[in-house]
Amino acid sequence: MSSPPTPTTQVGALNFQQAPPIWVPLRFFLSAPAFALLAAAVMLWQGENLLASRWSPATLAAVHLLTLGSMTMVMIGALFQLLPVLAGAPLPRPRMVAAIVHGALVLGTLMFAGALLFTQPLLLAVAIPLLGLGLAIFLAAALFALARTPNPNASVFALGMASCALVVTLLLGLALGASRTWGLALPTLSLRDLHPAWGLLGWTGLLVAGAAYQIVPMFQITPPYPRWLMRSFAATVCALLTLLSIAQWPAGGTSWQWLKPVCIFLLAGAYILFAAITLHLQRQRRRRLPDVTLEFWRIGMVCVVLAALLWAAQEIAVLRFAQADVLLGVLVILGAAMSFISGMLCKIVPFLSWFHLQASRAGAPNVKAMLPEKAQRLQLRLHLAALVLCVAAALFPALFTYPAALCFGAASLSVLWNMFGVVRIYRRVAAGP
Q1: Are the beta carbons of 281 and 223 closer than 8 angstroms?
Q2: Looking at residues 1-16, what average pLDDT do you find?
Q3: Is residue 295 within 8 Å of 279, Cβ to Cβ?
Q4: Are the C-beta atoms of residues 338 and 383 closer than 8 Å to each other?
Q5: Are 226 and 285 in contact (CB under 8 A)?
Q6: What are phi and psi of 244, to 5 degrees?
Q7: Three-class DSSP labels, the chain
Q8: Using CA atoms, how far apart are residues 17 and 430, in angstroms rounded to an integer?
Q9: What is the pLDDT of residues 70-84, one digit of tens each?
Q10: What is the predicted pLDDT for the residue at 368?
Q11: pLDDT for residue 197 is more than 90
């Protein structure tokens, strides 16, 4: 990112004058790679058993360390930053809300993963309400801010739909947790499929799309997304997820079964279309200089396409095999979501540090000096190697699980090291001579 904006100006549609204090989003960004490192440790500890089934306690623990502890952590931190900057609607009392939500999410995720790993129902009974409370407080603040948006646009609408999808994801997750902890008679099989669908396609996918509408054209110097896509994508995804939920709910009986494959094909097609348009726009970028963030996004979009094709093929039994669900999870979580997150952290943490140093009139080094290209490139290579090995481990657990765990741990450690390196520079410059 060359020639960053001065602290008193706008960048395109982004208004940085309303940005929250730096430690509001930064606490979330710094915690996320630590949880990914914990997931790698669980993978190394459990070995090939972790990738044998998506339903084993250890697998669920590792998955939630990634989805709650890493992905949701970054996405919540990003919304604290994006809502005031992108929508002109800061969350109320950002310092207090961020402290409560961050604390609840950190403790709740650790307790939830520990309860699954060590079979501790009492710990689970504490973790579930704690996670519910933290996410509910964030959602209340985010939806309140979105309702006060002065000039809503396609990005704001997508962020609103993503927040609504998180509400559904949270309710489904709480229902699953209550069923597991207190033995409530709930349609567990339906909940197991709908919970990740709303979480990954609704919450994660729509948040990425809403951010991409602004970030891809502005920072990757591409043409804008088509208006018809920005107007229809979020609403279409939410409508299809709603129909999928109706089709999978037991009360619908057999009369709605035909709707499930239709929704899956349409959802897969929608995300393939979004990824293809994004890749096409990136090919037309006007700035041809190397950009690590761009490469992270390209890896993520390719994995979106592969995951969507695999999901649709499973529904018609073309690629239905024992490890298909595990491979799908690797492509969606590590291949798509974690690629976007790693790329975003490379861009946003150095930029925020620079911006706040400029605002405080401290002599800020250049953004690229805060996180050099060489360090970013190493982070990218380790991530790509971990992704390839995790895909191989999903197909051949006995051969590749341990190398995949070690490489994923190294990739997560590189993100953590790079982020704390930026923070060290920020603190040193902010402290003055």
Answers
A1: yes
A2: 45
A3: no
A4: yes
A5: no
A6: -65, -40
A7: CCCCCCCCCEECCEEHHHCCCCHHHHHHHHHHHHHHHHHHHHHHHHHHHHHCCCCCHHHHHHHHHHHHHHHHHHHHHHHHHHHHHHHCCCCCCHHHHHHHHHHHHHHHHHHHHHHHHHCCHHHHHHHHHHHHHHHHHHHHHHHHHHHCCCCCCHHHHHHHHHHHHHHHHHHHHHHHHHHHHHCCCCCHHHHHHHHHHHHHHHHHHHHHHHHHHHHHHHHCCCCCCCHHHHHHHHHHHHHHHHHHHHHHCHHHCCCCCCHHHHHHHHHHHHHHHHHHHHHHHHHCCCCCCCCHHHHHHHHHHHHHHHHHHHHHHHHCCCCCCCCHHHHHHHHHHHHHHHHHHHHHHHHHHHHHHHHHHHHCCCCCCCHHHHCCHHHHHHHHHHHHHHHHHHHHHHHCHHHHHHHHHHHHHHHHHHHHHHHHHHHHHHHHHHHCC
A8: 19
A9: 999 999 999 998 888
A10: 84
A11: yes
Distance CA 259, CA 250 (A): 13
* Segment 130-184, tens digit of pLDDT: 999 999 999 999 999 988 887 788 999 999 999 999 999 999 988 888 777 666 6
**pLDDT average, residue stretch 371-398:** 95
CA distance 278 to 294: 11
pTM (2 d.p.) = 0.91
163 touches 146 (CB < 8 A): yes
pLDDT confidence of residue 1: 36
